[in-house]
Amino acid sequence: MITFDGVTKRYPDGTVAVDGLDLEIQAGRITVLVGPSGCGKTTTLRMINRMVDATDGTVAVDGKDVRDVDPPALRRGIGYVIQQAGLFPHRTIVDNIATVPYLLGWDKKKARAEAHALMARVGLDPGLAKRFPAQLSGGQQQRVGVARALAADPPIMLMDEPFSAVDPIVRAGLQDEFLRLQDEVEKTIVFVTHDIDEAVKLGHRIAVFQVGGRLAQYTTPDELLSAPADDFVSDFLGGDRGIRRLRFSQELDAEQAAETSRSRGDALGQDAAGPAVADR
Ligand SMILES: Nc1ncnc2c1ncn2[C@@H]1O[C@H](COP(=O)(O)OP(=O)(O)OP(=O)(O)O)[C@@H](O)[C@H]1O
Ligand SMILES: [Mg+2]
């Protein structure tokens, strides 16, 4: 759905932020870009919605070169969540979330109704709707940022370190809710982080960048942990890679167990419905 084909970004001062990037980002999945500071993650993300234009190569969304799409039209289909949520301080929560629908000229009532629905979806208490961002906790602000990006239902979401400003416990909660939400909405998500644990937890695929904007490895979390491509990647994964891999497989096992018991539960549910119907 999103492809980078030989993409390079050289800023006017000569800095090469992204160097010859080839990447295929799958639709309906979470792809994580991870790597040390300055390795070109944000630049890569911004070349998708043309906040930054590539110097060389082609970025395409749904097979269409983004250079051939008018930036405002392109961005209508792409939600963007930035670090610290980036909310408008003088607008209420509900108006922050309705930003894009307002811009699209939706009826105010409809836009606000949609914003309220999104608040529920991301786990925000409806009582917060009329507050201002400064009156919310960090974690609540991050949820507003996610809700705002989801308004107008874009098929693609770009998320640049959206959970980095909160403490580890709040962050873990936000990650869990985010995964649950993604199960429902199945957006194409490109998620930037410099935290390898977050990458492994959230990513369907992980792209590891190294400084100089080169792609070091692009693969599934399991493969990344079991077969790092080179010394840079294994150093980046760190010494506790074995533990991380163990934890990852345990999570997978737990997920599979839950899946199995869910389908078994469904089957039981149907059986149980049988006699109940017969009794009537
Ligand atoms: N407008 C700009 N002009 C010149 N150089 C820039 C510009 N924006 C970014 N850079 C440089 O490009 C490189 C990649 O920056 P980028 O913001 O993409 O990195 P990043 O991986 O997102 O880093 P971080 O994890 O710190 O957010 C860095 O060396 C940065 O200094
Ligand atoms: Mg960045």
Radius of gyration: 21 Å
> Whole-number average pLDDT?
87
Q: Tell me the series of helices and strands, N- to C-terminal.
A: EEEHEEHEHHHHEHEHEEHHH
The percent range for helix content is 40-55%
In CATH, the homologous superfamily of the largest domain goes by the name: P-loop containing nucleotide triphosphate hydrolases
How many β-strands, per DSSP?
A: 10
Task: Characterize the overall form.
Answer: globular
End-to-end Cα distance: 51 Å
Which small-molecule ligands are present, each listed once? adenosine-5'-triphosphate, magnesium ion
Contiguous helical run count:
11
Percentage beta strand: 15-25%
List segments where confidence is low: pLDDT < 50 over at least 5 consecutive residues. Answer: 266-280
CATH architecture of the largest domain: 3-Layer(aba) Sandwich
Strand order of the largest sheet: 6-7-8-3-9-10
Helix/strand-derived class?
A: alpha/beta
Question: Could you explain the architecture of this structure?
Answer:
This protein is an alpha/beta fold. It folds into 2 domains: 2-239, Rossmann fold, CATH 3.40.50.300; 240-274. It has 11 helices and 10 strands. Strands 6-7-8-3-9-10 form a 6-stranded mixed sheet, with helices on both faces. Strands 2-1-4-5 form a 4-stranded antiparallel sheet, with helices on one face. A hairpin with a 2-residue loop joins strand 4 (56-61) and strand 5. It is globular. The termini are far apart. Mean pLDDT is 87; it is low at 266-280. It binds adenosine-5'-triphosphate and magnesium ion. Adenosine-5'-triphosphate is lined by residues 11, 13, 15, 17, 37-43, 194. Residues 41-42, 160 line the site of magnesium ion.
